[in-house]
Amino acid sequence: MDTSRLTFPNSRFSLSHCVNLAVAAGLLTEQKSIDGVGVDLELNRSVTDMHTKFYLSRIERRSALDNDDRIRLWTIKEALFKADPDNQYTVLGHYEIEDPSLLQGKAKNNRGRSFYYSCEKLPMDKIFEIRSDGWISCAVSFSAST
Q1: Please, which residues have CB within 8 angstroms of residue 13's CB and are 6 or more apart in sequence?
Q2: 3-state per-residue secondary structure call for the chain
Q3: Does any domain span residue 82?
Q4: Domain membership of residue 78 as a residue range
Q5: pLDDT-flagged residues of the chain (< 50)
Q6: Domain containing 70 — which CATH number?
Q7: Is residue 64 a contact partner of residue 56, using CB atoms and an 8 Å limit?
Q8: Cβ–Cβ contacts within 10 Å for residue 128, how many?
Q9: CB distance 79 to 137 below 8 Å
């Protein structure tokens, strides 16, 4: 498929990059039940508890036991935000993860839109030529009636 005419944000495709890594996620066919797709990629960096109040709910902050959890939850929130076709008036804190301890699960935003997400730990190895591990998350959104 010709992607030269794509503009972003885009409800069918999402991009993320950091340092020397990039990732794309997309829907190649029309999926009437899916309103948007989002992906985020982050290498480990220091994220303090003080920063989490800007993107995590109280319940989510309680499940963020260490820096690894804080980065994982950040990527989930970014993927949720990117998957929301109506995100122009939202911030990451408007998305609430049903069970923040899970690597895949459900979330909702403050307007009732439903999301599913999945995340995975990035390996620190020679394949990706990175010297830091991190996380990748992908999310899809559904209309409020789904």
Answers
A1: 3, 6, 24, 25, 26, 27, 37
A2: CCCCCCCCCCCCEEEEEECCEEEEEECCCCCCCCCEEEEEEEECCCCCHHHHCCCCCHHHHHHCCCHHHHHHHHHHHHHHHHHCCCHHHCCHHHEEECCCCCCEEEEEECCCCEEEEEEEEECCCCCCCCCCCEEEEEEEEECCCC
A3: yes
A4: 33-142
A5: 146
A6: 3.90.470.20
A7: yes
A8: 16
A9: yes
Across the chain, what does the average pLDDT equal?
A: 86
Give the pLDDT confidence score for residue 128 in this predicted structure: 61
Does some domain include residue 95? yes
- Burial (CB < 10 A; 0-12, 13-18, 19+), residue 21, is middle
**pTM assigned to the model:** 0.87
Per-residue pLDDT tens over the stretch 67-107: 999 999 999 999 999 999 888 889 999 999 999 999 999 99
Per-residue pLDDT at 146: 45
